Amino acid sequence: MSHVLAAVAWPYANGPRHIGHVSGFGVPSDVFARYMRMAGHDVLMVSGTDEHGTPIQVQADAEGLTPRELADRYNRVIVEDLHGLGLSYDLFTRTTTRNHYAVVQDLFEGMYRNGYIVPKTTMGAISPSTGRTLPDRYIEGTCPICGYDSARGDQCDNCGNQLDPIDLINPKSKINGETPKFVETEHFFLDLPALADVLRQWLDTREGWRPNVLRFSRNLLDDLQPRAITRDLEWGVPIPLDGWRERTDKRIYVWFDAVIGYLSASIEWARRTGDPEAWRRWWSTDGQGKDAQSYYFMGKDNIVFHSVIWPALLAGYSGEGARDGEPGQLGPLNLPTEVVSSEFLTMEGRKFSSSRRVVIYVRDFLERYDADALRYFIAVAGPESNDTDFTWAEFLRRNNDELVAGWGNLVNRSVSMAAKNFGQIPAVDPAGLTDADQALLAVARAGFTTVGDLIAKHRQKQAIGEAMKVVAEANRYLSEQAPWKLKDEADKPRMGTILHVALQVVSDANTLLTPFLPHSAQKVHELLGGTGVHAPMPVIEQVDDLDGGPAYPVLTGDYTQGARWESVPLEAGRPLAAPKPVFRKLDPSIVDEELARLGG
Ligand SMILES: [Zn+2]
């Protein structure tokens, strides 16, 4: 058993999340965490909403809200959506907690003391008429990279590149239209070149990464420049240095604070358990966390933050770069074991776009369909290692032909037949098992090794394919053995044996599918007469800020109960529940209905 950190990308709290967001990292990280727990590892799965930065401030201004009010709204929406999908976070929190501020400031100070954060004079914008600093969000101009004519001072929303206000072509103040004046101003930079060697050594020792992720990360190291980590902005974490702490016009850049969330959320989780040092088992390079593993899940547009910036922060804080230094007060910290990046999901051949209504939000999806239907689609057809298209026709086909006609049918016919003829799990005939019986049981047992190894290697598409092969074998077995023909009293012992074997394989396949389909796995467990928790589920709790800030909802749960990753022999004589369908067959008309909802 080891300690496994599942660190999941932080959704930005400026709107509801669509299924593209949860397909890349939300559901896959949950599948991984559930499997690792079932296999006996001590898993800590953390994330939260990312709530600082210009886009939230701009949107809040437009709606007449404070940034915090806007973040409160979408934090709650996102927490409820992730809960609806059954994502088993130990803690899903947010970046506006006082705990997060304190941890971010501690990392900043530690890096600064070690010389990896350096002040640098750059050109900042001021308003010529007032002489005051002009925050990034109040400057607009043409993007120098893609030519988009309303790029903001810190970012182009069209091409997604990060910008500096001085890069904009024809910059204008959004307040009064005047052309800003650029004057010398001081900002803080992360000295990435001083950390390049330690990053290269770390990348050279990585094993099992998706090749494109490793290649992309190595290429990023070839051209490392110091990177600004503070901005002219009011909404964010204050800079924790004398002379800066009280300034309201300079803040730590949102991406710097958001990546630190993995650590601050782990610390918050530990503080909430009553053992404030417990986070060290997943993080400290010395002592308890020495053999811990950490897996970071994200979309490919976020690789740079996880394979360069975050390990650079961890190394610099631990005193490991070219300038050496001493570890900060949290002690030396583990660098990521693996960066697990997914590709993009498109929608009916187009990029997701909220403004063009090429989108389906998680909430709307869950109002009309079951969470496991989406989880199944993501597992078999998600953007694991290629860009992938979501189409309603394919969703319908996967749901009806595979989930309902394959797995649902196997569960339904074996449980119904056993319930009707025996009312309980039938016993194996003393005459024993045939070769066909033994062969099927062996296929199911072998699945625990095959499927488990594939999930551990982040090859979930292949993993669920192997689990569904067990289902297909069991369906073929039932068709060949045709227990429904064994109606005579003399044949009943053999019928019982066949159904016993089939139910045992249903139970095994259900365990193999539990990380992917936890909601239905619980139902199948109960159909087989099982009691108690088979697949633990997250809960939403309203909690107080640990350090006196406003209360907020978190996603958390007790995942210590539940099935283990092993075949559990079914006891003959256990009463069977009244059978009912586990999955819903969808009417083909949903395809046209859903397409009509999409914008043109
Ligand atoms: Zn652009």
UniProtKB/TrEMBL annotation:
Catalytic EC class: ligase
Cofactor binding notes: Binds 1 zinc ion per subunit.
Gene3D superfamilies per record: HUPs, Isoleucyl-tRNA Synthetase, Domain 1, Methionyl-tRNA synthetase, Zn-domain
Cofactor(s) annotated in UniProt: Zn(2+)
Binding residues annotated for Zn(2+), in chain numbering: 143, 146, 156, 159
Gene Ontology biological-process entries: methionyl-tRNA aminoacylation
GO MF annotation list: ATP binding; metal ion binding; methionine-tRNA ligase activity
'HIGH' region, short sequence motif: residues: 11-21
Listed GO CC annotations: cytosol
Record carries keyword Ligase: yes
Subcellular location: Cytoplasm
Binding site for ATP: 354
Motif ('KMSKS' region): 351-355
Function, in words: Is required not only for elongation of protein synthesis but also for the initiation of all mRNA translation through initiator tRNA(fMet) aminoacylation.
Subunit structure: Monomer.
Matching HAMAP family: Met_tRNA_synth_type1
PANTHER family, per database record: METHIONINE--TRNA LIGASE, METHIONINE--TRNA LIGASE, CYTOPLASMIC
Official protein name in the record: Methionine--tRNA ligase
Organism: Micromonospora zingiberis
Source species taxonomy: Bacteria, Bacillati, Actinomycetota, Actinomycetes, Micromonosporales
Gene: metG
